[in-house]
Amino acid sequence: MPVKQYNPTTAARRLSSVDTFEDVTRSKPEKSLTIKRKKFAGRTGGKITVRHQGGGVKRRIRLVDFRRAKFDVPAKVVAIEYDPSRGARLALLYYADGEKSYIIAPGGLKVGNTVLCSKGKIDIQNGNRMPLQHIPVGQNVFDVELVPGMGGKLARGAGTGIQLMAVEGAYATLKLPSGETRNVAKECMATIGTASNPDRRLIRWGKAGRMRHRGIRPTVRGKVMNPVDHPHGGGEGKNSIGLKHPKTPTGKPALGVKTRRKKASDLLILQRRPKGRFVGSSA
Question: Second label for 271, Cα 20 to 30 Å away, from 106, 114, 239, 283?
Fold first, then answer.
């Protein structure tokens, strides 16, 4: 997906760039595979629990099949579609028995291609899905399960991919896009290839209006607020926050504080991601 830049006719145009959508082959979604998206604007029970959310253009949710439980039934790619809720493209599949479904399209998948999902060993080609134990070591995969049968959870964002490092004993070792190395059960399913639309991270949104269309409201720094509104507020001029550690508006520690609670799966994480690494990178 190339990124298009315009002539700097305005200050915003000078900085912004847009997706060309050259890989999209169909403009309207399959209506039977969409549902209405209700807006909550970051509120739970009327109280703001997630800040900076609200507004945005009206959209419908695409029902993506992350499990792909139709085994050994070939499916034909009918269209590559845009999804307003994610960066990667969607592939509309027509199965041989007449069923339709959406999947996250891998890079390079074309209309007319045939994809297959199986619990056994099948051809290594983009879009095919099989257990990790049947995939060659070193292969890039995406949409990987954490628990067998639960559906894909890892590497679903645009351009992301996971490298299969080893399969030993009951586990497969994966290197995630963040740099983290972890084990998952070798029976977990994964899709061959990397998620489509890798150039999405190069888009520069350029102006506040485009962010409002995405449903993202303005972000105001705590240190420019009043003390009644934020722990960092108050002071004269360009003062520091005046606290030993940064805090959220509700007074909880922020910025660099570990938030992950102890989980049983911690034992499967072999190496944490390096600090300061760009999470969206696939290097």
Answer: 106
Whether the per-residue pLDDT at 283 is higher than 60: the answer is no
The token pair that represents 133 in the structure block: 């134990």
Q: Are 89 and 81 in contact (CB under 8 A)?
A: yes
- Phi and psi torsions of 247, nearest 5°: -135, 160
Phi-psi region of 273 (alpha: psi -120 to 50; beta: other; left: phi over 0): beta
Q: How many CA atoms lie within 13 A of 147 on its CB side?
A: 3
Tens of pLDDT, residue by residue over 171-191, are 999 999 999 999 999 999 999
Residue 266, classed as helix, strand or coil, is: helix
Residue 236 placed within a domain: no
pLDDT tens track for 121-153: 888 999 999 999 999 999 999 999 999 999 999
Q: How crowded is the C-beta side of 54, counted as CA atoms within 13 Å?
A: 12
DSSP codes of every residue in 182-217: EEEETT-EEEES-BS-GGGGG----SHHHHHHTTB-
> Which of 168, 206, 155 has its CA nearest to residue 5?
206
> Letter for the amino acid at 121?
K
Residues 6+ positions from 19 with CB-CB distance below 8 Å: 1, 3, 4, 197, 199, 200, 203
> In CATH, what number is assigned to the domain containing residue 85?
2.40.50.140
Output the average pLDDT for the chain: 90
Full domain range(s) for residue 75: 3-36+50-172+185-201
Q: Does residue 97 lie within any of the structural domains?
A: yes
What is the arithmetic mean of pLDDT over 63-84?
Answer: 93
